[in-house]
Amino acid sequence: MTRSTRLDQPGATHHVMGRTISGRPLFGDDYDRISFIVRLGRCCVCCGVKVLAWCLMPNHFHLLVRTSDTPLSSFMARLLTGHAAHMNTRHKGSGHLFQGRFKSIFVADESYLSELIRYIHLNPIRAGLLKKPGDLEDYRWCGHRMLTGSPAPVWMDVRSALGAFAEDTRSAVRSYQQFMAEGVLPGGAEHVPVHALTRSGIDGPGGRAVSREHECSREHLAGDIPTVRNVARKIPEQVRSRFRKRGPADAGIAALFEEVKKRWQVNRNDISKRSWGGDISKARAFMAYYLTTELGFSLAEAGRRLGISRVATYRAVMRFVHRGGGAGGSGEAEVNEVNSDPYRRKSEKKTR
Protein backbone atom coordinates (compact mmCIF):
# COMPACT_ATOMS: atom_id res chain seq x y z
CA MET A 1 0.00 0.00 0.00
CA THR A 2 1.32 3.43 -0.93
CA ARG A 3 1.69 6.06 1.75
CA SER A 4 -0.97 8.72 1.97
CA THR A 5 0.08 12.32 1.43
CA ARG A 6 0.95 14.38 4.49
CA LEU A 7 -1.58 17.18 4.80
CA ASP A 8 0.42 20.35 5.23
CA GLN A 9 0.77 23.99 4.26
CA PRO A 10 2.89 26.99 5.39
CA GLY A 11 1.78 28.27 8.81
CA ALA A 12 -0.22 25.12 9.63
CA THR A 13 -0.68 23.80 13.16
CA HIS A 14 -0.20 20.08 13.80
CA HIS A 15 -0.63 17.69 16.71
CA VAL A 16 2.34 15.34 16.25
CA MET A 17 2.84 11.98 17.98
CA GLY A 18 5.75 9.55 17.80
CA ARG A 19 5.91 6.11 19.43
CA THR A 20 8.75 3.61 19.78
CA ILE A 21 8.77 0.06 18.44
CA SER A 22 7.30 -2.55 20.81
CA GLY A 23 7.29 -0.17 23.76
CA ARG A 24 11.05 0.32 23.64
CA PRO A 25 12.11 3.15 25.98
CA LEU A 26 12.31 6.46 24.18
CA PHE A 27 14.88 7.72 26.70
CA GLY A 28 17.45 5.95 28.85
CA ASP A 29 17.81 8.70 31.43
CA ASP A 30 17.41 12.43 31.97
CA TYR A 31 20.43 13.18 29.79
CA ASP A 32 18.60 11.63 26.83
CA ARG A 33 15.50 13.72 27.58
CA ILE A 34 17.58 16.90 27.76
CA SER A 35 19.29 15.94 24.51
CA PHE A 36 15.89 15.49 22.83
CA ILE A 37 14.66 18.87 24.09
CA VAL A 38 17.82 20.67 22.97
CA ARG A 39 17.65 18.95 19.58
CA LEU A 40 13.98 19.95 19.31
CA GLY A 41 14.97 23.57 19.96
CA ARG A 42 17.74 23.48 17.38
CA CYS A 43 15.45 21.98 14.75
CA CYS A 44 12.78 24.58 15.54
CA VAL A 45 15.24 27.44 15.07
CA CYS A 46 16.59 25.96 11.83
CA CYS A 47 13.17 25.22 10.34
CA GLY A 48 11.23 28.20 11.69
CA VAL A 49 8.89 26.01 13.75
CA LYS A 50 7.16 27.14 16.96
CA VAL A 51 5.97 24.78 19.70
CA LEU A 52 2.71 25.53 21.53
CA ALA A 53 2.65 22.42 23.73
CA TRP A 54 4.84 19.37 24.25
CA CYS A 55 5.17 16.34 26.47
CA LEU A 56 7.73 13.53 26.74
CA MET A 57 6.48 10.13 27.90
CA PRO A 58 8.40 6.88 28.55
CA ASN A 59 7.79 5.43 25.06
CA HIS A 60 6.23 8.26 23.05
CA PHE A 61 5.97 12.03 22.76
CA HIS A 62 3.40 14.69 21.83
CA LEU A 63 4.05 18.03 20.11
CA LEU A 64 1.70 20.81 19.09
CA VAL A 65 3.69 22.72 16.48
CA ARG A 66 3.17 25.55 14.01
CA THR A 67 5.28 25.33 10.87
CA SER A 68 6.55 28.03 8.52
CA ASP A 69 8.18 27.49 5.11
CA THR A 70 9.75 24.12 5.93
CA PRO A 71 7.42 21.11 5.57
CA LEU A 72 6.50 19.25 8.75
CA SER A 73 8.02 16.04 7.35
CA SER A 74 11.44 17.70 6.89
CA PHE A 75 11.38 19.11 10.41
CA MET A 76 10.38 15.79 11.98
CA ALA A 77 12.92 13.83 9.93
CA ARG A 78 15.73 15.91 11.43
CA LEU A 79 14.36 15.59 14.95
CA LEU A 80 13.62 11.84 14.92
CA THR A 81 16.68 10.75 12.94
CA GLY A 82 18.93 12.75 15.22
CA HIS A 83 17.40 11.30 18.39
CA ALA A 84 17.48 7.74 17.07
CA ALA A 85 21.16 8.13 16.19
CA HIS A 86 21.85 9.58 19.64
CA MET A 87 20.14 6.67 21.40
CA ASN A 88 21.87 4.02 19.30
CA THR A 89 25.28 5.62 19.76
CA ARG A 90 24.99 6.27 23.48
CA HIS A 91 23.31 2.99 24.43
CA LYS A 92 25.07 0.70 21.94
CA GLY A 93 21.84 0.01 20.04
CA SER A 94 21.07 -0.47 16.38
CA GLY A 95 18.16 -0.34 13.96
CA HIS A 96 14.95 1.66 14.09
CA LEU A 97 13.71 3.35 17.24
CA PHE A 98 10.32 4.66 16.14
CA GLN A 99 7.25 2.71 15.08
CA GLY A 100 6.59 3.62 11.45
CA ARG A 101 5.85 7.17 10.42
CA PHE A 102 5.06 9.77 13.03
CA LYS A 103 1.35 10.54 13.41
CA SER A 104 0.11 14.05 12.71
CA ILE A 105 -3.30 15.69 12.96
CA PHE A 106 -3.80 18.87 10.97
CA VAL A 107 -5.55 21.46 13.18
CA ALA A 108 -8.16 22.84 10.80
CA ASP A 109 -10.02 24.83 13.47
CA GLU A 110 -7.81 26.71 15.93
CA SER A 111 -10.72 27.14 18.32
CA TYR A 112 -9.71 23.66 19.49
CA LEU A 113 -6.18 24.75 20.46
CA SER A 114 -7.08 24.97 24.14
CA GLU A 115 -8.39 21.39 24.13
CA LEU A 116 -5.28 20.10 22.39
CA ILE A 117 -2.93 21.95 24.75
CA ARG A 118 -4.74 20.48 27.74
CA TYR A 119 -4.78 16.99 26.23
CA ILE A 120 -1.01 17.06 25.63
CA HIS A 121 -0.04 18.50 29.00
CA LEU A 122 -2.30 16.16 30.99
CA ASN A 123 -0.66 13.05 29.56
CA PRO A 124 1.61 12.48 32.61
CA ILE A 125 -1.45 12.48 34.89
CA ARG A 126 -3.45 10.10 32.70
CA ALA A 127 -0.47 7.73 32.57
CA GLY A 128 -0.16 7.74 36.36
CA LEU A 129 3.23 9.48 36.39
CA LEU A 130 1.68 12.36 38.37
CA LYS A 131 -1.40 12.60 40.59
CA LYS A 132 -2.83 16.09 40.07
CA PRO A 133 -2.40 19.19 37.86
CA GLY A 134 -0.43 20.94 40.61
CA ASP A 135 2.33 18.35 40.23
CA LEU A 136 2.92 19.55 36.67
CA GLU A 137 4.49 22.76 38.03
CA ASP A 138 7.60 20.74 38.96
CA TYR A 139 7.44 18.33 36.04
CA ARG A 140 10.32 19.07 33.68
CA TRP A 141 9.28 17.01 30.68
CA CYS A 142 6.29 18.94 29.35
CA GLY A 143 5.52 22.56 28.52
CA HIS A 144 2.92 23.15 31.24
CA ARG A 145 5.07 25.14 33.65
CA MET A 146 6.27 27.38 30.79
CA LEU A 147 2.66 28.48 30.29
CA THR A 148 2.27 29.33 33.96
CA GLY A 149 5.24 31.67 34.25
CA SER A 150 8.47 29.63 34.22
CA PRO A 151 11.20 30.75 31.77
CA ALA A 152 10.59 29.36 28.29
CA PRO A 153 13.08 28.79 25.45
CA VAL A 154 12.79 30.83 22.27
CA TRP A 155 11.18 27.97 20.36
CA MET A 156 8.22 27.76 22.78
CA ASP A 157 5.45 30.08 21.54
CA VAL A 158 3.95 30.91 24.93
CA ARG A 159 2.03 33.93 23.64
CA SER A 160 0.12 31.95 20.98
CA ALA A 161 -0.58 29.11 23.39
CA LEU A 162 -1.98 31.39 26.10
CA GLY A 163 -3.85 33.36 23.44
CA ALA A 164 -6.18 30.38 23.14
CA PHE A 165 -7.44 31.15 26.67
CA ALA A 166 -7.51 34.97 26.98
CA GLU A 167 -6.01 38.09 25.46
CA ASP A 168 -3.97 39.41 28.40
CA THR A 169 -1.33 37.16 29.95
CA ARG A 170 -2.53 37.25 33.55
CA SER A 171 -6.10 36.29 32.69
CA ALA A 172 -4.87 33.68 30.24
CA VAL A 173 -2.73 31.95 32.87
CA ARG A 174 -5.64 31.84 35.33
CA SER A 175 -8.00 30.48 32.66
CA TYR A 176 -5.43 27.92 31.57
CA GLN A 177 -4.85 26.63 35.12
CA GLN A 178 -8.59 26.35 35.75
CA PHE A 179 -9.09 24.61 32.42
CA MET A 180 -6.35 22.11 33.26
CA ALA A 181 -7.93 21.36 36.65
CA GLU A 182 -11.29 20.72 35.01
CA GLY A 183 -9.68 18.20 32.67
CA VAL A 184 -9.04 15.67 35.44
CA LEU A 185 -12.53 15.88 36.96
CA PRO A 186 -15.21 13.28 36.09
CA GLY A 187 -16.68 14.23 32.74
CA GLY A 188 -13.85 16.63 32.05
CA ALA A 189 -12.41 14.77 29.08
CA GLU A 190 -11.54 16.68 25.93
CA HIS A 191 -13.91 16.76 22.98
CA VAL A 192 -11.86 17.47 19.88
CA PRO A 193 -13.54 15.99 16.79
CA VAL A 194 -10.97 14.47 14.43
CA HIS A 195 -12.02 13.39 10.95
CA ALA A 196 -10.31 11.21 8.37
CA LEU A 197 -9.71 12.82 5.00
CA THR A 198 -9.79 10.54 1.94
CA ARG A 199 -10.02 11.20 -1.79
CA SER A 200 -13.75 10.52 -1.57
CA GLY A 201 -14.30 13.13 1.12
CA ILE A 202 -14.62 13.21 4.90
CA ASP A 203 -15.12 9.93 6.74
CA GLY A 204 -16.86 9.61 10.08
CA PRO A 205 -19.40 12.45 10.40
CA GLY A 206 -19.34 12.08 14.16
CA GLY A 207 -15.58 12.37 14.35
CA ARG A 208 -13.61 10.68 17.09
CA ALA A 209 -11.77 11.69 20.26
CA VAL A 210 -8.12 12.66 19.93
CA SER A 211 -7.22 10.37 22.81
CA ARG A 212 -8.25 7.31 20.79
CA GLU A 213 -5.02 7.00 18.80
CA HIS A 214 -4.85 4.17 16.29
CA GLU A 215 -3.10 3.17 13.09
CA CYS A 216 -4.67 4.78 10.05
CA SER A 217 -3.24 5.46 6.60
CA ARG A 218 -5.62 8.37 6.01
CA GLU A 219 -4.84 11.94 6.93
CA HIS A 220 -6.67 13.44 9.92
CA LEU A 221 -7.91 16.93 10.63
CA ALA A 222 -9.11 18.39 13.93
CA GLY A 223 -12.23 20.52 13.73
CA ASP A 224 -15.91 20.42 12.89
CA ILE A 225 -17.09 19.03 9.55
CA PRO A 226 -17.71 22.39 7.74
CA THR A 227 -14.30 23.74 8.76
CA VAL A 228 -12.51 20.54 7.81
CA ARG A 229 -14.14 20.48 4.37
CA ASN A 230 -13.31 24.14 3.81
CA VAL A 231 -9.64 23.66 4.73
CA ALA A 232 -9.36 20.48 2.64
CA ARG A 233 -10.63 22.34 -0.43
CA LYS A 234 -8.12 25.17 0.02
CA ILE A 235 -5.04 22.95 0.16
CA PRO A 236 -4.09 21.72 -3.33
CA GLU A 237 -3.19 18.05 -3.69
CA GLN A 238 0.34 18.80 -4.83
CA VAL A 239 1.23 20.71 -1.64
CA ARG A 240 -0.19 18.29 0.92
CA SER A 241 3.10 16.48 1.37
CA ARG A 242 5.98 18.73 0.29
CA PHE A 243 4.96 22.29 -0.47
CA ARG A 244 8.54 23.48 -0.72
CA LYS A 245 11.78 21.51 -0.98
CA ARG A 246 14.25 23.41 1.12
CA GLY A 247 16.60 22.78 3.98
CA PRO A 248 16.78 24.57 7.30
CA ALA A 249 16.91 28.34 7.33
CA ASP A 250 20.28 29.73 6.31
CA ALA A 251 20.45 31.71 9.55
CA GLY A 252 20.51 28.51 11.60
CA ILE A 253 23.32 26.99 9.56
CA ALA A 254 25.24 30.28 9.58
CA ALA A 255 25.08 30.35 13.39
CA LEU A 256 26.61 26.87 13.50
CA PHE A 257 29.44 27.95 11.19
CA GLU A 258 30.08 30.89 13.53
CA GLU A 259 30.50 28.47 16.44
CA VAL A 260 32.99 26.45 14.39
CA LYS A 261 34.88 29.60 13.45
CA LYS A 262 35.25 30.58 17.12
CA ARG A 263 36.58 27.12 18.08
CA TRP A 264 38.93 26.37 15.18
CA GLN A 265 39.37 29.75 13.43
CA VAL A 266 38.14 28.10 10.23
CA ASN A 267 36.01 30.12 7.79
CA ARG A 268 32.99 28.67 6.02
CA ASN A 269 34.77 28.57 2.67
CA ASP A 270 37.68 26.63 4.19
CA ILE A 271 35.48 23.66 5.10
CA SER A 272 35.40 22.41 1.50
CA LYS A 273 39.19 22.68 1.02
CA ARG A 274 41.29 19.54 0.91
CA SER A 275 43.01 18.92 4.20
CA TRP A 276 44.30 15.69 5.71
CA GLY A 277 44.80 17.06 9.17
CA GLY A 278 44.79 20.17 11.27
CA ASP A 279 41.94 22.46 12.21
CA ILE A 280 40.16 22.36 8.84
CA SER A 281 39.86 18.58 9.01
CA LYS A 282 38.67 18.72 12.63
CA ALA A 283 36.10 21.42 11.88
CA ARG A 284 34.79 19.55 8.83
CA ALA A 285 34.49 16.31 10.80
CA PHE A 286 32.58 18.04 13.57
CA MET A 287 30.22 19.80 11.15
CA ALA A 288 29.52 16.56 9.26
CA TYR A 289 28.79 14.73 12.51
CA TYR A 290 26.63 17.53 13.90
CA LEU A 291 24.53 17.97 10.76
CA THR A 292 23.87 14.25 10.32
CA THR A 293 23.53 13.12 13.93
CA GLU A 294 22.28 16.16 15.81
CA LEU A 295 20.09 17.72 13.10
CA GLY A 296 19.22 14.57 11.16
CA PHE A 297 20.52 15.64 7.73
CA SER A 298 21.17 12.95 5.15
CA LEU A 299 24.81 12.49 4.14
CA ALA A 300 24.07 13.99 0.71
CA GLU A 301 22.29 17.05 2.15
CA ALA A 302 25.00 17.63 4.75
CA GLY A 303 27.61 17.35 2.00
CA ARG A 304 25.85 20.02 -0.05
CA ARG A 305 25.86 22.35 2.94
CA LEU A 306 29.58 21.73 3.49
CA GLY A 307 30.54 21.86 -0.18
CA ILE A 308 31.85 18.27 -0.22
CA SER A 309 30.67 14.95 -1.63
CA ARG A 310 28.51 12.37 0.11
CA VAL A 311 31.49 10.02 0.45
CA ALA A 312 33.64 12.80 1.92
CA THR A 313 30.86 13.59 4.40
CA TYR A 314 30.71 9.95 5.51
CA ARG A 315 34.49 9.83 5.97
CA ALA A 316 34.38 13.06 7.97
CA VAL A 317 31.72 11.62 10.29
CA MET A 318 33.82 8.49 10.80
CA ARG A 319 36.91 10.59 11.60
CA PHE A 320 34.97 12.47 14.26
CA VAL A 321 33.70 9.23 15.82
CA HIS A 322 37.12 7.54 15.74
CA ARG A 323 38.88 10.46 17.40
CA GLY A 324 36.55 10.35 20.39
CA GLY A 325 33.26 11.78 19.16
CA GLY A 326 29.88 10.33 20.05
CA ALA A 327 28.73 9.11 23.44
CA GLY A 328 31.26 9.43 26.22
CA GLY A 329 34.10 10.67 24.01
CA SER A 330 35.83 14.01 23.90
CA GLY A 331 33.73 14.93 20.89
CA GLU A 332 30.58 14.79 23.04
CA ALA A 333 31.83 17.81 24.96
CA GLU A 334 32.13 19.74 21.69
CA VAL A 335 28.56 18.86 20.73
CA ASN A 336 27.28 19.77 24.19
CA GLU A 337 29.04 23.14 24.11
CA VAL A 338 27.51 24.04 20.76
CA ASN A 339 24.12 22.79 21.97
CA SER A 340 24.27 24.66 25.25
CA ASP A 341 21.39 27.03 25.93
CA PRO A 342 19.64 28.33 29.08
CA TYR A 343 17.19 25.42 29.18
CA ARG A 344 19.95 22.82 28.98
CA ARG A 345 22.15 24.48 31.58
CA LYS A 346 19.28 24.73 34.10
CA SER A 347 18.27 21.14 33.46
CA GLU A 348 21.81 19.78 33.89
CA LYS A 349 22.17 21.54 37.23
CA LYS A 350 19.07 19.75 38.52
CA THR A 351 20.29 16.31 37.42
CA ARG A 352 23.58 16.53 39.28
Short description:
This protein has 352 residues and is α+β, with helices and mostly antiparallel strands. Helix content is 45%, strand content 12%. It folds into two domains: 227 residues, Transposase IS200-like (Alpha-Beta Plaits), CATH 3.30.70; 102 residues, DnaA protein, C-terminal DNA-binding domain (Chromosomal Replication Initiator Protein Dnaa, Chain: A).
What does this entry look like structurally?
- Helix content is 45%, strand content 12%.
- With 352 residues, it is α+β, with helices and mostly antiparallel strands.
- It has two domains: 13-239, Transposase IS200-like (Alpha-Beta Plaits), CATH 3.30.70.1290; 250-351, Chromosomal Replication Initiator Protein Dnaa, Chain: A (Orthogonal Bundle).
- A hairpin with a 2-residue loop joins strand 5 (194-198) and strand 6 (201-208).
- Helix 1 (30-47) packs antiparallel against helix 14 (342-351), helix 10 (278-294) crosses helix 11 (299-306) and helix 10 crosses helix 12 (310-322).
Descriptive key words:
352 residues, alpha+beta, elongated
Low-confidence parts = 198-217, 238-249, 326-330, 341-352
CATH architecture of the largest domain: 2-Layer Sandwich
Major beta sheet, strand line-up? 2-3-1-4-7-5-6
Number-wise, the strands total 7
- The averaged pLDDT comes out at 76
CATH superfamily membership of the largest domain: Transposase IS200-like
Largest sheet: 7 strands, mixed
